[in-house]
Design brief:
- The protein is mainly α.
- It has one domain.
- The protein contains six helices and two strands, in the order H-E-H-H-E-H-H-H.
- The protein has a two-stranded parallel sheet.
- The relative contact order is 0.18.
Amino acid sequence: MPRPLITETVAIWIDEALALPAAGMPPGVFSLIFDGTLDYVQYIINVMKYDAVWQEALESCLQRQSIAPPMLGPDNCAAGHRGSPLHFSEDFPRKLATILAGDSFIRFSGVASLEPVSRSRLVDENRACTTHDAWIRKWKLMSLTSLDPVEPWPSWEHIQRQYTMPPLV
């Protein structure tokens, strides 16, 4: 799975699961556990923790109006929530922190070891980024790697080709 899709995909599952109690799911009858080999779970947690800090830092800059907001238009109409691929869901950083603290019915197997980057440090490191687009370009530079299972499992691209329809021509 391409690295930028990891947080986007898992955030949807988290939001769906967190909506269940409000929809009438009684407490204690449901849990969501993201399970896998320790190295994959650890990688996913580390990616999500880093992305959560990026979302928090970008939103604080937008709120302070220290960077220009995203431009709306055909090139940006499907770029995540609020027109930004760095907005994974409302309150995503807080939701992830609650989950990783063990205060949720959502859990990840394994232990998170990467210390998150502080929001203020990330803002300072990206002071030269004065637009939303500059922030996104910088985030994408650090997110060029992908997560593929080891043999004998197929790659993410192979799974997509096998289970999705080809584009209409």
